[in-house]
Amino acid sequence: MSLLEVSNLNVHYGDLQALYDVSLKIEEGEIVSMIGANGAGKTTMIKTISGLLSPTSGKIRFLGERIDGLPPHYTAEKGIIQIPEGRGIFPFLTVLENLTIGAYTPRARQKMDQSLEMVFEMFPVLEERKTQLGRTLSGGEQQMLAIGRGLMARPRLLMVDEPSLGLAPILVKKVFEILRQINTQGITIFLVEQNVKQSLNLCNRGYVLENGRVVLEGMGREVLEDERIKKAYLGL
Fold first, then answer.
1. Phi and psi angles of residue 66, each rounded to the nearest 5 degrees, phi first
2. pTM score of the predicted model
3. In this model, does residue 165 exceed pLDDT 90?
């Protein structure tokens, strides 16, 4: 049984269709990447899995249980945690307050102290700045805070939306190293990202989304070597 299975998913914004019969699987312990240009439907995919959007048709199963159309607090309690595009931190709360808010589900609150210790071990800079307001952090530090807040929720599946957005290349490399480290701790990751080379080098398997449709899937390195990907996304 897959950790997450999406079958023939269709999603609309009013009369506009954003996803067309999208299917994918994520196995426990994997890093799975979904790449595509702006407007391809990547964020729509994550929001629908989270419960922020309801599909027009299709099925989403998490550990065999249907979750499509269920509210976000239900999916979060099950362990599906989304780190949104643009980080979404609370700018006028401290770093520590931002992190503790992440442990909002009953399951996560029980292990909040343990989670906080883990986050500070992974991101020492957050412990150093725990009394600072979120808005005073650099872009890279804010991304670390967003990831740390997601970890506070004790995810079974961590969905990360465009983590490299707006970061300098050296910080992008750092963020991807952090995601690899998180995965080695047993957390499954679904990564949505425009940085094709970094995300496909990181993942076990990759999906390519174009105009709301999956047009290619396979092992990460295999997808990266596909001539269509080289031409469309890498300029080769």
1. -65, 125
2. 0.92
3. no
Where are the domains positioned within the chain?
1-79+156-168+187-236, 86-154
CATH for 1-79+156-168+187-236? 3.40.50.300
Q: Could you say which DSSP state residue 133 is in?
A: B
CA 33 – CA 192 distance, rounded (Å): 6
For residue range 14-30, list pLDDT tens digits in order: 999 999 999 999 999 99
Residue 232 predicted with pLDDT over 80: no
In tens, the pLDDT along 197-206 reads 889 999 999 9
Which residue is it, tokens 């500070």?
120
Instruction: Count Cβ neighbours within 10 Å for each residue of 174-192 and write b for 16 or more, e otherwise.
Output: ebbebbeebbeeebbbbbb
| Distance from C-alpha of 80 to C-alpha of 153, rounded to nearest angstrom | 9
pLDDT of residue 105: 87
Structure tokens, 166: 């707006």
Closest CA to 163 of 77, 83, 103, 43: 83
How far CA 53 is from CA of 18, 67, 166, 233, in Å, comes to 11, 12, 26, 28
- In the predicted model, is pLDDT for residue 78 greater than 90? yes
Q: Classify the C-alpha dihedral 44-49-51-54 as positive or negative.
A: positive
